[in-house]
Amino acid sequence: MTVATTSADAQALKDALARLAATPRLLVALDFDGTVSPLVDNPSDSRVLPEARAALTELERMPDTWFAFVSGRPLANLVRVTEADDEVLLIASHGVEVRLEGGAVDVGLDDDEQARLAALSARLDAIVARTPGSKLEHKPVGLGLHTRGVPAEAAARADEAARDAAREVGGTFLERAGKDILEFSVRDATKGDGLQRLRRHVDATGMLFAGDDVTDEDGFAALGHDDIGIKVGQGETRARFRVADPDAVAGLLSQLVSLRRR
Ligand SMILES: O=P(O)(O)OC[C@H]1O[C@H](O[C@H]2O[C@H](CO)[C@@H](O)[C@H](O)[C@H]2O)[C@H](O)[C@@H](O)[C@@H]1O
Asked: Known EC number(s) (predicted)?
């Protein structure tokens, strides 16, 4: 993948990182898939790149410095793939599930939400059965139809059928199209809500947030003037900066560690 950035952009990012490294209370919040972990066919195989992991471990040890994963994955799944210890702050299910110090909140679906999810799940199962290579992911507040590796036309047909199914079930489903995944949720929190929650929790004076997907745009929208938003890869974005891939994110995290150590 090529991502066009000029040397002026690269210098501006370097300068912004140096300023952020000097902030009194620093929060580093990272999307997981496609940001610190390269995209892979089987979601349970995803892991944080070693360089990023080393940098995050260093950040965790520094005073007045916190890091968090902010992901669309369910919380239990996110804990497993990130191998996060109990200290790591986690925002999961696109902002619905939150684990700050003191444990996670219970999402507690009501009867109507449970019934609508069950009805949609049955319909999506039928779509998966006739779409080889697709998979249905069950999440605490929604369902994700995965089509990675499915030929484009068949994937588009499956997505369209899934949208029809959600309309048939009725009520409000928040629809999110990500990378080879179409999700339907009965709750409407966003990663932006998650970042605000984290900012308040640690009383951050500066924040870095990096993400690669459309749902990360809600996160970029929640950033302030003294924060840094980094889009990973191609696509439209409101982030101020852009890097090519998870390796580049890992490199930036290492730079941030060195700068903050100083
Ligand atoms: O917010 P994120 O941390 O980026 O999570 C978004 C979704 O990530 C996972 O799916 C994506 O990554 C998989 C592994 O690389 C890939 O196989 C899939 O095609 C991608 O859509 C995860 O499985 C989903 O639950 C997340 O919503």
From this structure: 3.1.3.12
Among residues 128, 159, 185, which one ends one of the domains? 185
Say what the pTM is. 0.94
Among 36, 20, 3, CA closest to 216: 36
Residue 2 lies in a domain: no
> Is there a single domain that holds both residue 118 and residue 148?
yes
ipTM surpassing 0.95, yes or no?
A: yes
**pLDDT-derived band of residue 102, with 50, 70 and 90 as boundaries?**
low
Which residues does a 6 A CB cutoff place in the pocket of ligand 1?
31-34, 39-41, 43, 46, 71-73, 137, 144, 146, 148, 178-181, 213, 215
Would you say 198 and 190 are in contact if contact means Cβ atoms under 8 Å apart? Answer: no
Residue among 199, 168, 196 nearest 184 (CA): 168
At 84-95, the pLDDT tens digits run 998 899 999 999
